Fold this sequence. Notes:
By secondary structure, this protein is α+β, with helices and mostly antiparallel strands. The protein has one domain (3-180). Helix content is 49%, strand content 16%. The chain is built from 9 helices and 6 strands. The chain has helices at 3-8, 64-77, 79-95, 102-108, 111-114, 119-124, 136-153, 159-169, 173-180, and strands at residues 11-13, 16-18, 22-26, 30-36, 44-52, 55-56. The longest helix is centred in the last third of the chain and has 18 residues, at 136-153.
Amino acid sequence: MDKNLKEYMRFTKEGKKFTPLFVSEINGRFIVAAYQGSLSKYDILIKYRQKIKGKWSYIRTPKHIHWAVDVLIKMHEDPKKTKEFINFLLSIWEKTRPMKSGKQRKTALNLGNLLEINRAQIEKYKKLGEKGEYSIKFLILLAKLLMLQEKTNLETAYMFKNLLKALHTGEDIFKIVSIATHNRR
């Protein structure tokens, strides 16, 4: 891990310093990091920076709604390819297992496990990354981290899977936003 990148993604909240367990730069446009979370022993907290007009943003926390809006934009531009991409993510969801040990977390938070094993899919869906805000590489990395986070904190969790299914079946915008914002009204 690049020490400078690790330092750049360090942050302080309520007097406590957070140093990344994992950090990676994606396409020269994003820096993604995972930190020790507070919900469980192997919980991860996900943060990122985005390069906008040549400058890096403040450290941000990704929300499911940001991810969903980007996928909706891609869906509008290329429904068939986006549905294929969502099917690919659903297959990752099914294979994702919670992190239950330090060794499992170290293995899971390895760039090779997070991205390199999906090199073919990154290439296959690369054109979709030209639509919307996020590149395919960033979306895959973010999706995998969010899946790990969710399943580690509650192995029977299904919110992310429900969001993917709602996007795939073309549910109405109200339902998609409700799922993505955890609002069940």
